[in-house]
Amino acid sequence: MKTTPTHEMVKDSYANMLRTAQEKPSCCGTTSPAAKLAGYEETEQHADAASASFGCGNPLAFAGVQSGDTVLDLGSGAGLDLLIAAEKTGSSGAVIGVDMTDDMIEVARNNARKAGYDNIEIRRGLIEALPVEDSSTDWVISNCVINLSPDKPKVFSEVFRVMKPGAQLSISDIVVQDLPDWIRESAAAWSACIAGAISEAEYLQGLRAAGLEDVEVADRLVYDASQLRAILCEDIPGLDLGLEIGDDQIDALLEQYAGTAWSARFTARKPG
């Protein structure tokens, strides 16, 4: 599958965000309001990966990953969730990360080496065309990535394909409702995981349409105005919405749309 203009825009944005995070590592990762509420207790053990992570939840917080399992992470980024999964699967298991951004892949591989894990493999590819064998994974996880895809039904179909019968899914992602045009049309807001997000109902429907069952929302974090500001204006390094209005006007807009975006953790299972 060839990359689309949306893929290229996201790749460029995340490469820039990664460079900025490396220059000023404290501005995102574990210090953001969303990350603090996401449930990462392990991040202090993986500071390098956490400082360049741009997630909205912790898909492994309550996942029942067992020793010997094979875990696939969609859009694995700097590798924070890979490292946590590798701890859970142990040396008898395997952890596969798929990412399309070369800079992120390099950082994640370095983080895995520094952490001493030899059960992590990171592959370059698109989540709409996963470089993963059919029926080969026990768990599929993802952290604030599927919203970035221009073809979400294809992603859900690919997830179903690579899962073993009975395999499970745990995905943290941002969902939205009633967003204004100025956010929907912002390339930066797309990279901030907002503009490309779909509704919770559409997300659930997409997972079920792909063939998954026991599809549900395990938990939610509804963003207030201050958290929306953090996501869109402050905590993502190298990201600029380019709004030519004052802070007071931005605050008023964010207050108006508070409660229209939230992080949800979706769980599901492949029949069999």
What does this entry look like structurally?
- With 272 residues, the protein is of the alpha/beta class.
- The chain is 38% helix and 21% strand.
- The two termini are 29 Å apart.
- It has a seven-stranded mixed β-sheet with strand order 3-2-1-4-5-7-6, sandwiched between helices.
- Helix 10 crosses helix 11.
- The protein has a single domain (5-176, 199-223, 261-269), classed as Vaccinia Virus protein VP39 (Rossmann fold, 3-Layer(aba) Sandwich), CATH 3.40.50.150.
Helices and strands: which structural class? alpha/beta
Inertia-based shape: globular
Oligomeric assembly: single chain
Portion in beta strands: 15-25%
Strand order, main sheet: write it out: 3-2-1-4-5-7-6
Gyration radius over CA: 17 Å
Q: Count of DSSP helices?
A: 11
| CATH architecture term | 3-Layer(aba) Sandwich
Elements, N to C (H/E) = HHHEHEHEEHEHHHEHHE
Classify the helix fraction into a percent range. 25-40%
Q: Could you give the distance between the termini?
A: 29 Å
Any idea how many domains?
1
Q: Remind me, CATH topology?
A: Rossmann fold
**Low-confidence parts:** 25-35, 235-239
SS elements, strand count: 7
Largest sheet: 7 strands, mixed
Looking at CATH, the homologous superfamily is Vaccinia Virus protein VP39
User: For the record, what CATH class applies?
Assistant: Alpha Beta
Look at the structure and give the mean pLDDT.
82
